[in-house]
Amino acid sequence: MKVKATLINELNKGLYKLLIIMTLSFLGLMFYFSWRTEQQYIEERLGFSNLGAFFLVLFLLIILGALLFSLSYYIRKLKSHTFLFLLICVSFSVRLVWILTINTPPATDFRAMYDGAVGIFYRDWAPIQREYFYSWPYQLGFTVYESFLLSLFGEGTFSIKFFNVLYGVGTVFFTYKTSSLLFNELAGRIAGIFYAFYIPAIVMTSVLTNQYIAIFFFYWAFYLLIKNGINHKWNWIFIGALLAIGDIMRPLGAFILLAVSCYVFLAFLKKGRIHKERVVKKFIGIFVVFYFVHYLISASFIAWGITEYPLSNRNPLWKFVLGFNHETEGQYSVEDAEYVARYSLGTERNEVEKELIKERLEDKSEVAVLLWKKFNNMWGIRDESIFWSMGHQKESAQVIHKVLYASERMMFLLLLFGGIAYLLFSFRTEMDKRKAFFLILILGYVLVHLLVEVQTKYRFFINPALAIIASLGFVTLFYHTKFLSGGRGRIRSNLKL
C-alpha cells in the first residue's frame, strides 16, 4: 500500500510539473508575440526606431506594473465589503457609460441572431428558417434569450446590452471571489480590478454577443466547483445546470466538461476508496444534469416550432476547415464558405470538408508553420474587440482606436507577466488541484484553437482565468520584493501556491 501511495504521489507531482511546463511555454510565446505586436505598432504609428520602440514598451510595462503595485498597496487597507461595493459600482459604471456612449449596430452573426430574435418575438419564423440556423441550431439558445428580453422590454438592442453590463459585472465578481478563495483577499482584489478595467471586457458590452451571459454562468460554475468541490451534497446539480445554460448560450460545454474531467482525475488520485466512489458518482451526475438540461431546452424549442433539430452543430467540420486554411492562416475564409455552400448540408458537405481538411494536412512542415502563425493570430495580434465595438466609427474615432489598441496589448502583457511569475514560483511548491483546474482551462483552450478557426474575439472566455492566475503571481512578487511589508505576515500566511 505504501509503495502504491508513493507511486500515485509521484504521478500526481509529475502531472502537475508537466502542466506547469506546458502552460509556461504557451504563456511565454503569448508574451513574445504580444510584445512584438506592441513594438511594431509603436514603430508604425509613432515613428520610433526598432530599439526605441522596444525600450518604450519596456518603460510602459514598468509604469503599468508600478501603478498596479501602488494600487495594491492602498486597496489592501480597505475592508472587504467596502472594496466589493466599490468594485461593483466602478465595474457597472464604466460598462453602462460605454453602452450609453457607443451605439454599436448588430453585424454578421450578431445581426443574424438579433433578426432571428425579432422574428420569434413577432411569430415570424422566416428569419430563423435559413441555412445559418439549420447549420448551427445551437445559436438558437442565445437567439431565444434575446427574444425573451424583447418580450419583456420591447424591441430594441438596449435591454440586451444592459444585461451584458450586468453579466460583465457578475463575471468581475466571480473573478474576485474565485481568486480570493484560491489565494488570498489581496489576490482576489487584484484579479477583480484587472478584469473590471480590461478593455475587451468593457468595449464588447455594446456588441450583441453571446459571450457575456455564457462566461457568467461558466465562471459561476467554476467558483462552485473550487469552493465546495465535486463531493458536496448538492453542488454537482448546480454545476451541471450552470454549465448547461452557459453551453446553450455559447457552445463550449464539451471542452469545459473535458477540463472538469481532468480536474476530477486529479482529485481521484488523492482520494481514499470511499471518497473515490462518491467523486465518480457526483462526476457522472454533472454529466447527467448537463445533458438533461440540454435535452429539456432542445425538446421545448422543437415543441414550440422554433426548430426541428436539437441545439447542436450540424456542420461540425466547418471550424476545422477554416482552422487548417493556410492562405488565411486559420482565420475566416469567404472562398471556403462559398465552396462548401455548393453542397447540401449533411453527409455530402461533410465528405467535401473531410477532403479539404485531409488535403491541408498532407504537408506536415507547412502545417507546423500554420500552427505557429495561428498561435500569433490568436494570442499575439491586437484584440479586435475594439473593431467589433467601434468599427462603425472608424473615421471619427481614429485616436481612440489607437489608444485602446495599444493599451489592450500593454494590459495583456502585464497579465501574462503575472501568470508567468506564478508558474515560475510554482516549481518550488506543491500545487493543488483547484489551481491546476485553471491551468488546464488555459492550456486546453490554447490547444483547441490550434485546431479550429481563430479570431481574437474568442480570447474573451479565457481572460478571467488569466486574471485569476496572474493575480497570485503579482502577490507573490509583492511578497518577495517586500513591497507590501506592512501586510507581509498576512500575505505570507496565504501564499501556498
UniProtKB/TrEMBL annotation:
Localisation: Cell membrane
Keywords: Cell membrane, Glycosyltransferase, Membrane, Transferase, Transmembrane, Transmembrane helix
Statement: the UniProt record of this protein carries the keyword Transmembrane: yes
Pfam families: PMT_2 (PF13231)
GO BP terms: lipopolysaccharide biosynthetic process; response to iron(III) ion
Keyword field contains Endoplasmic reticulum: no
GO MF annotation, one: pentosyltransferase activity
Domain of life where this protein originates: Bacteria
GO cellular component terms attached to this protein's record: plasma membrane
InterPro entries: LipidA_mod_glycosyltrf_83, RgtA/B/C-like
Glycosyltransferase RgtA/B/C/D-like domain location: 148-291
Primary subcellular site in the record, as a coarse category: membrane
Annotated transmembrane regions: none
Membrane topology: Multi-pass membrane protein
Name this protein carries in UniProt: Glycosyltransferase RgtA/B/C/D-like domain-containing protein
Organism from which the protein derives: Priestia filamentosa
Lineage: Bacteria, Bacillati, Bacillota, Bacilli, Bacillales
